[in-house]
């Protein structure tokens, strides 16, 4: 989502973007915060010479290890954000969206965040599921819709947890314990975070925890240009929430308990550290603020303010950034650093359960998921294990999905269907010949009744364009069945043919009427009578052949 | 049978056979049968039937009923069996009734037979009846044995099991008497009935159907478990070749039952005299899969006398999974250190690799078996303590994902065990048990390291964390003392330094189970080490006591209760510190006492209040310095709070505290420990008058007398014991008895009567010791104790009451008629 303006505004993109409403609203907030943070500190100059490959490799690590630096772009503006968002068409869960009649696309709840989706892309005979950023844990969003993923030909699996060894429950426990210990000793806690997502669950956890830990008097500050909107938006997306929270709305109560924290003044939110915050600020306290990379945003101020005291703690909860790299410019640092990455996305055990439940024919996933993490090569449990083995892909690789489109669905018009006369050729199997015009438009195929035979028109009217449709000839009946060679030979003999020889060939038989110098080739799907210019004989033989076949 | 019951019986019998009357529930019928059983055991059944003809009539009428109700039919079958257990009564009923009940013309072929309760009743009736030779002939005549054979495969497990047991009973009955001496294995001189059963068992053992083999094995297991006569030896000689044949099949059928049988035979007298049995056992051990062989191996190791070679083999089987783990975990090749025969064979490895559930199941089973074995006196010696420790540590590391195996099996184990709570729990339990032995220091260090990993890991589930705390406690308490014997050794001190910050964090956990386990651990470790200087020093520097105090206000009641116990323990050792600092210890103690008293008076949950009472009682017993400072005030305030508590356990604990107080004033009650050596008392006990005055001041009498009429029996019983103790102590001294003419006895007795009537709100007012003693003397406390000792339903338990109840439910007694206007 955060890269959307780069796609829609800089690549000549002219298509439609589909997204759920919370995705758009929360995405806007995230981008707005990012733009705000960046624009707060405008750079008078920008250096780009270092991106020259020859210069770059002379630079110290990690600059020299950065990849594809030439493609790095400036951050977008709010105008570009708005323009990108205007190209989005809103969709709801389970809504079916027709794409040119060729495929139908459906978003499903992925259980990871408000409005986050997995997608089903299906035609009449093929189904591809795209699973990304999903969670089976009970957090605030609507639970993951697994049932709709069943019977997929291909399941594309991506967006698994980045920290497969960290259990989110345990991490929340660590977060709370460390927070309590720090505050109890008079220290402050800094939580670098995004303004939406896990923060809702953390606030809910703290709501339940602060009384038991005796932290009721400790202020919690949430500082972000979009803090207010984020907290308020979360309360109004009732239909996108888990069942428990939905039922609260009907009571009516706010679905998230952070409303109560705000009401009781335990949680306060500010757009920035300037203004009201400076008046209200008291310590010890807990501050949630961005950006989790520690490179910009209000978090930078707090790092500088609290970094020198060992009483304070910074707790990293977002898994997107390496905390060691984030902290590098602040060293030496006296404050305690705790790493509790909370990533609720699917881990490998959950993936294995999901695949057992959904049973796709093929799984396609990034290459990294098909082998243990490089740092823990013995952990064979940290990879996707399924049968048949998952098909893997690398970045920017074009992949042919392992299925062939073999059928198209064709609709038949009712009046044409009425005119059919089915004939039962086997019990339960009826056949009918169809003469129709196949009409194809927008990848939809319809059989329409053939135009009536052209009426004699007096010859003077001008030809109309519709008259271009070829006239339908009266069709010969179709044949079915097989010819038993022995009986056929007997029949020939009965009809006066003698000196008959039968030869077996790879495809069937050849019946040789030596006397008549005639050849009858009988194969599975064709019969040929080869005789020299004796039309009467050919017709006689043809009629004998036809006796063994059914016509319809 | 008492006359009143005899009078009620005909009406009851009429109700039971009347299809219009609702049948009393199963419990009533069971109670009725229990009662008839005691009656028939106490006297002649024949006389009972003659005096109560309604009983025989009941049996006849049930039989003749067109559509008998299954419950009543089952009841009748069992009742008839009870009567026919006595031979004369059997003769009396044999003519007509018994064949009709148990023969082919009875319910056997009827529609009622489809009800499992009827089939069960038929079997139980026969089980009661089969007590004498006449019964054997009857069984043969009516063809019952064949029916029992078929019921072995009944769809109801209860019926199938009862059929098997009945066969064993009949076999034992048949073999009693002439054949009991020295029966030949061929059984040519065995009674026909026994011959028939044994032949059936033989046929079943030869069967290809596993179900039949299982039935036969179960019958034999029960036989060898219950019958220890010499004939069982003949039976085993005859059947053991067939049992041995089972071992040659692949897969071995009914392996569980086979293991049970072999162990049952090995435990019976047959086992000690048959050398072939040990060979069979050894053969079975090697033929069964590792999972199936585990229980057999444990059973063999529990046997008192069996060959050493077999024991070694069995121990090898138990150790194999752990040997496999050690092999898989080994970074460098080297002997795992287990005895020979336990070097992880290929079958065990295959089991490990076959599936996750097989691997987890086998490991958990091995750990549980070895844990059991470790505690037994006959455990194998030498006990491979060091490799077992290494294996337990390796398993825990695999489960934690911290092992880095190099082999394929190791990699597989790592994948299967990572995060497996079941194995973690089993391994931690096992590791805890291993703390009874010693190990090389390097291994003990590894044990503490892995325990610390589990205690620290945020991924440890609450149950695993609890087990880790328990195992840590056992290892800590088992760790050697420093050479001076008065303080902890340096390794333990080092570990404590790492442990206490973890404990501190766990006490702050948002998961209440973690906080609770942490507090329990703290209580236990303080109980044992509260006096150790190193522990005291580390604890006081750790902030843990302050956090414990904080948890007295935890929202979870279990945690509050554990916090109460922990603070109580800390305070007993002078380790409970509040922010006021150590310069005002009296202020701290006062504040803790006040805080606990506050919990006792206001907490909405019972657990914390009970915990407070336990702490206070312990403080009083230990002579806690600050309690002793103003003992009377302490007791008075606690009793006052406890007396108003709604939880009977709190009130009962209040009486316990009162008793401790009394004992301290008056000396130990003599009856408590008759063999105790009387210790010379440091100071002469106070005079009785002084004691009674003190008891009045703390309002102990009011508390105890109120409790005497408590609606909860245990409270009343405790109070009664306490007052009796006081009475016994006071009476010989005489003292106050002569003091006057009990001035206010009337008002006290009046108050007691009101209390007894349920008006507990009435206060007793100021009490004079003389008045109290006079009341105690006038009360029949012994009688009251006798009455309280009876269960609360003793009135309702009598057979007469049972019969009345059953009749009342159908309205035969006519008591309810008046209501039906």
From TrEMBL, chain A:
Question: Which Gene Ontology cellular component annotation is one that this UniProt entry carries?
Answer: cytosol
**Cellular location of this protein?**
Cytoplasm; Nucleus
Keyword annotations from UniProtKB, A to Z: Cytoplasm, Nucleus
Write down a Pfam family by its short name.
Beta-Casp
In this chain the Beta-Casp domain maps to 199-327
Does the entry feature the keyword rRNA-binding, yes or no? no
User: Briefly, what is this protein's role?
Assistant: Component of the integrator complex, a multiprotein complex that terminates RNA polymerase II (Pol II) transcription in the promoter-proximal region of genes.
- What protein name does the entry list? Integrator complex subunit 9
Automatic annotation (TrEMBL), chain B:
**One GO biological process term:** cell population proliferation
Q: Which domain of life is it from?
A: Eukaryota
Q: What is its main location?
A: cytoplasm
Q: What keywords is this UniProt entry annotated with?
A: Cytoplasm
**Is Protein transport tagged as a keyword?**
no
InterPro entries, alphabetized: ARM-like (IPR011989), ARM-type_fold (IPR016024), BRAT1 (IPR038904)
Query: Nucleus as a keyword?
Result: no
Q: Where in the cell is it found?
A: Cytoplasm
A single GO CC term for this protein reads: nucleus
**Similarity section:** Belongs to the BRAT1 family.
PANTHER family per the UniProt record, alphabetical: BRCA1-ASSOCIATED ATM ACTIVATOR 1
Protein name (record): BRCA1-associated ATM activator 1 isoform X4
Source species, please? Camelus ferus
The organism's lineage is: Eukaryota, Metazoa, Chordata, Craniata, Vertebrata
- Gene that encodes the chain: BRAT1
